[in-house]
Design brief:
The chain has one domain (16-177). The protein has three helices and no strands. The longest helix has 102 residues, at 16-117. The protein is 93% helix and 0% strand. With 179 residues, the protein is mainly α. The protein is rod-shaped and about 145 Å long. Residues 135-178 form a coiled coil.
């Protein structure tokens, strides 16, 4: 027969008051643990918010710097474009004056040909048509040259801007990665 240990028997008998007291202690410990976790989370949230504000401030400054830089580049390009347009207008004016001189020379040559050659009416009309066609052909070639010149200038400005934009993007990416 086993001997019954009176201490074990006493331990097993818990009163409702003891049980209530132990539950109160457990709830108190649980409440303390919850407060400790809440405090830890609160401080972590504040730390994350502080870091986010710091990153936001840095990005805001970087964005303003890039906007300022691009604004300057755009103004510079606008100024360059106006300069190119002014230069093209000057070139067109010189070409127009040159063509006017050429046209005058064609007219003078036409008259000399008529006087010197004593050409018949049909021959004269044939020569006159050739001269008009040549002048028109030269005008078309001039227009083609002007368009090609514009394309070359715009392409150069575009490539310069594209290169500058690539540099700014690299600097922006580097700045955002380092934060």
């Amino acid at each position: 027969m086993k001997a019954k240990n009176p201490a074990k028997k006493a331990k097993k008998k818990l009163t409702l008051e003891d049980l209530g007291s132990k539950m109160d202690q457990g709830f108190t410990r649980l409440g303390g643990e919850i407060k400790r976790v809440e405090t830890g989370l609160s401080s972590e949230i504040k730390r994350v918010e502080t870091n986010l504000k710091r990153v936001e401030t840095g990005l805001s400054g970087e964005i303003k710097r890039v906007e300022t830089s691009l604004g300057g580049d755009i103004k510079r390009l606008e100024t360059n474009l106006k300069s190119v347009e002014t230069n093209l207008a000057g070139v067109e004016n010189k070409m127009d004056r040159g063509f006017a001189g050429v046209a005058l020379r064609f007219d003078a040559t036409d008259k000399k040909i008529d006087k010197l050659a004593g050409a018949t009416q049909n021959e004269f009309l044939h020569l006159d048509a050739k001269l008009d066609g040549g002048f028109e052909s030269m005008r078309e070639e001039l227009d083609d040259i002007k368009e090609k010149l514009k394309n070359v200038v715009y392409r150069h400005e575009f490539e310069t801007l594209k290169t500058r934009m690539g540099e700014l993007e690299k600097r922006f990416d580097k700045a955002t990665r380092s934060r």
